[in-house]
Design goal:
single chain, 356 residues, mainly alpha, Dna Ligase, domain 1, three-stranded antiparallel β-sheet, two-stranded antiparallel sheet, 13 helices, lyase, lytic endotransglycosylase activity, membrane, MLTG-like
């Protein structure tokens, strides 16, 4: 009787060992199988609500892998507490199913980038968002005021309220999400710089400093001149002089601006014409970087009250109107063919998806 029991136990143990061996072999084979990916990488889109089991079944149905059952079982036994991050995963031809699951464990989703450029206006910013195909478009058809309301800034003018930087995002991120980030970043940078501002500046609040920074941003072609340009504008404000800066006139012209401004344009009143209106314009005229904000809040000491563009992005600074007029005659009335009265427009770098 005892012998029969021993034989039975040995038989059961043998069967268990065979089953475990078969299980281990099948699972190993499923994990080490190469993915059926062509020469080009495949982007696997994991959407909100997707589960590992569901994604594995989808990949099996699409012929990317086999034995999804064993892979699902592996995840359930070994990674049941691991969340599956949404986004895109780049699957390459050399990857195995184990490599893919490793990507899922590490959350290595493909990230894209969008660069918002210093000096852009809000219209250009909206266009950049609309032209980024990996962003979920939720703001099309909304007015500027409606957009500001959506991001929690109801009643605020959108111009200059977003920080220029390179923003990384995953597929499924909305244009609204990215705008919120850029808005919050500008608020943070402006507050940091405002708290460290120089004394006796002619600004009532940080918003006026932001307006000044936007003018400096548009006037500056050589980064080292920001502080000196800020000094000119601050001294003119302190003396009650008109700012007389072309970028504000151009902004006020809107779609009427065709690449050049005339004397008639300088005399045509708009809320942004600093040749006809005293003080700062009512809003910023462009997005600004930290350097321009810093310059507006730390203007360089000096006595210059005028500057004129040389045509290469740099400027000649003058203390008196007579000196300024001589510089105008030298650098503007005798323009070279390649003369530029303002810095060349800055472009955003190309957008490429990266894994991070």
């Amino acid at each position: 009787m005892i012998r029969k029991i021993l034989v039975l136990l040995l038989t059961v143990l043998l069967l268990v060992a065979i089953a475990l061996g078969l299980f281990t072999w099948k699972q190993h084979a499923a994990l080490e199988q190469p993915l059926a990916v062509t020469d080009e990488a495949l982007l696997l889109d994991v959407r909100p609500g997707d589960t590992p089991s569901g994604v594995l079944q989808r990949l099996e149905a699409e012929g990317v892998l086999e034995d999804a059952f064993w892979l699902r079982l592996y995840w359930r036994l070994n990674l049941s507490g691991q969340s599956l991050h949404t986004g895109e995963y780049r699957l390459s031809p050399t990857m195995t199913a184990r490599d893919m699951i490793g990507l899922w464990q590490r959350g290595e989703v493909v990230q894209y980038s969008l660069t918002l450029v210093e000096g852009w206006n809000f219209r250009q910013l909206r266009s950049a968002l609309q032209n980024q195909p990996k962003l979920e478009q939720t703001l099309d058809g909304l007015t500027d005021a409606e957009i500001m309301s959506r991001i929690g800034a109801s009643g605020q003018h959108p111009e200059g309220r977003f920080f220029p930087d390179t923003y990384r995002f995953t597929r499924g991120t909305s244009d609204e999400d990215l705008l919120r980030r850029a808005f919050a970043r500008l608020e943070q940078v402006l507050e940091e710089e405002w708290q460290q501002r120089a004394r006796e500046l002619p600004y009532k609040d940080a918003y006026q400093a932001l307006i000044m920074a936007s003018i400096i941003e548009k006037e500056t072609g050589v980064p080292g001149e920001r502080g000196e340009i800020a000094g000119v504008f601050v001294r003119r404000l302190a003396r009650g002089m008109l700012l007389q800066t072309d970028p504000t006139v151009i902004y006020g012209m809107g779609e009427k601006y065709k690449g050049r401004i005339t004397r008639t344009d300088l005399r045509t009143p708009t809320p942004y014409n600093t040749y006809t209106n005293a003080g700062l314009p009512p809003t910023p005229i462009a997005m600004v970087g930290r350097e321009a904000i810093h310059a507006a809040l730390h203007p360089a000491d000096g006595t210059s009250l005028y500057f004129v563009a040389r045509g290469d992005g740099s400027h000649v600074f003058s203390d008196t109107l007579n000196q300024h007029n001589r510089a105008v005659r030298e650098y503007q009335l005798k323009r070279r063919a390649d003369y530029r009265s303002s810095p060349p427009p800055r472009q955003a770098p190309a957008d490429n998806g990266n894994v991070q």
